[in-house]
Design a protein that fits this description.
The structure is a homodimer of 196-residue chains. Chain A is mostly helical and 196 residues long. Chain A is 73% helix and 0% strand. Chain A has helices at residues 13-29, 36-43, 47-53, 57-82, 87-102, 111-118, 125-145, 153-174, 178-195. The longest helix of chain A has 26 residues, at 57-82. Chain A starts with 12 loop residues before the first helix and ends with a helix. The A-B interface holds A 28-30, 32-33, 108-109, 113-114, 116-122, 127, 130-131, 134, 155, 158-159, 161-167, 169-170, 172-175, 179, 182-183, 185-186, 189-190, 193 and B 28-30, 32-33, 108-109, 113-114, 116-122, 127, 130-131, 134, 155, 158-159, 161-167, 169-170, 172-175, 179, 182-183, 185-186, 189-190, 193. The first copy, chain A, binds a DNA duplex (30 and 30 nucleotides) through residues 12, 14, 35-37, 45-49, 51-52, 56-57.
DNA sequence: AGTCAAATAGACAGATTTGTCTATTTTGTT
DNA sequence: AACAAAATAGACAAATCTGTCTATTTGACT
């Protein structure tokens, strides 16, 4: 047996720092809007350091999205677990997290929806990476509603996914966090109908 | 009394043609991704013609979005009217239109959500123009569910808006039109609950 | 101290960005 | 045919874009 399995991408302080800064700027202003030079100036990192760690800007964006996805999924997993075993409470905790997020100062919508939007071609790696996150989020919802005994649980999870994405877009557009409550009410109502 | 009231923006063949080409390219590739020169080459129009009709690229984008919004709202109004007076049928017709749209070859999601995504700052004119469309669409939904006697009809219309936007994003990401049916089922189910 | 990899500054390429300006030609209307 | 408005080509500015290359310096480990 070998030692701990190798990480896919070797971790490095500079690489991490670049990704952190890149995330901040991309999320704040947009992927195409932020140029490499701006990022490098903000991160105080040399250009060759970036291109030694990432083959291209595109690859950097994908890396940033995947890290963000992992963080987000972990945070949702934790919230669900903390909420206990009751399916309604578990589901509601997802919308609690959503609402809290909407109220943060630097909230600018969903980085993945915005990535889909800026790279609209479905075959594009960034597009695919973004959707991959949404599919994984859907899996979490399914793991909530299936044990609740909901009939057609897959469709219910899909519906809740629609509500969540719609709520994020609405919150971004309006600056209001109310859409989280709207989506929560609908989700709980649909769950109730599906378990009746 | 004067003759017919003046149009806010004088109609012109060149202006129209520019907007048509701009719409096609912006929707296909993205607002930031399409440069002025690309647009002019595709439209076979001189640069000064563009800048005689529009003060800036930003103004052109807003004009394109507003025209598209007017077209879309008119098409929804027609669909609702054709569907008759029954609220369920009216609501369902909206999702028929959605599904049909998802199946078109050049479908690339919602131009307005994508505009919100590319111009994430809420004070930005493009951002505001995009959200203005969503509010007007919400008004149509409200005009469907209110006469149905739904309690809390405003919240119901909001919820259906969330479902629609979520469905558009999902259809764009997956290339599947199934999200239209998922959203329709949920919308009808919620309408039923609200009128029980 | 010596070695080797990593990070640095900075020039450079070549293309592209939005927008302005001029001088000419086309078009539509009396 | 004469006039005026609209559209044209094309140069130009000044900035920005991603990515490459070189030569030098830094930092860590033995």
């Amino acid at each position: 047996m070998s030692a701990t399995p190798v990480a896919v991408t070797p971790s490095s302080p500079k690489r991490d720092h670049l990704m952190t800064t890149a995330w901040r700027l991309f999320y704040r202003d947009g992927y195409r809007a932020v140029g490499i030079d701006t990022l490098l100036a903000e991160a105080e990192v040399a250009k060759m350091t970036l291109y030694n760690h990432f083959a291209s800007k595109e690859e950097l964006i994908v890396a940033v999205l995947e890290r963000r996805s992992a963080e987000l999924l972990a945070s949702v997993d934790t919230a669900i677990e903390v909420a206990g075993k009751n399916p309604q409470k578990r589901l509601s905790s997802v919308f609690d997290g959503l609402k809290h997020w909407f109220q943060t100062d630097d909230f600018k919508g969903c980085a993945f929806i915005r990535a889909l939007s800026e790279y609209p071609e479905p075959v594009h790696p960034i597009h695919q990476s973004a959707w991959s996150h949404k599919r994984q989020m859907n899996a979490r919802l399914l793991s909530i509603v299936t044990p609740a005994g909901a009939k057609n649980s897959a469709q219910l999870a899909d519906t809740i996914s629609l509500l969540i994405d719609g709520a994020i877009v609405a919150a971004h557009a309006t600056g209001s966090a109310l859409s989280a409550d709207t989506a929560r009410s609908a989700a709980l109502s649909l769950l109730k109908s599906a378990t009746a």
